[in-house]
Amino acid sequence: MIQDYLDQLIVVGDRLIIELSESSDRTDSGLYLPPNVKEKEEIQSGYVLKVGPGHPIAFDEESEPWKSNDNPIKYIPVQAKEGDFAFFLKKYAYEVVFKGHTLMIVPQTSILLLQRDEGLFE
């Protein structure tokens, strides 16, 4: 299962790792759709598996240049949370295969809609 390997992945910046949802190969009337129909869809959906820390906030280095730069980096967090169902623009996402699973790396700006079920994983 992919959840066993997620600890090996470190998501950078405002990106998310999304596992695509299983879409039907058939229409409501029972016709089978060829694979290239799915490839042409501009919007895809799936579950958020892992979330990056967010947008880094710049330091104000001009005010105190003599101080050491030991401060940890601060981030503005992304809106998505692990377990959310996300609709996103496919053209800005990157498809990767990790341990036999096809995953999408999606920037926060490509997310169109999030569906959150608070009691889903409790």
Q: Would you summarize the structure shown here?
A:
With 122 residues, this protein is mostly beta strands. The protein has one helix and eight strands, in the order E-H-E-E-E-E-E-E-E. A hairpin with a 2-residue loop joins strand 6 and strand 7 (101-107).
Please provide a written account of the structure.
The structure is a single chain. With 122 residues, the chain is mostly beta strands. It has a single domain (2-23, 34-56, 72-114), classed as GroES chaperonin (10 Kd Chaperonin, Protein Cpn10, Chain O, Roll). 4% of the residues lie in helices and 34% in strands. It contains one helix and eight strands, in the order βαβββββββ. The chain has a six-stranded antiparallel β-sheet with strand order 6-7-1-2-5-8, with no helix packed on it. β6 and β7 form a beta hairpin. The longest helix has 5 residues, at 35-39. It is elongated, with a radius of gyration of 18 Å. The two termini are 19 Å apart. The mean pLDDT is 82.
Features:
two-stranded antiparallel sheet, 10 Kd Chaperonin, Protein Cpn10, Chain O, six-stranded antiparallel β-sheet, about 120 residues, about 35% strand, mainly beta
Helix and strand arrangement:
Elements: E1 15-20, H1 35-39, E2 43-51, E3 55-56, E4 75-76, E5 85-89, E6 94-98, E7 101-107, E8 111-115
Antiparallel strand pairs: 1-2, 1-7, 2-5, 3-4, 5-8, 6-7
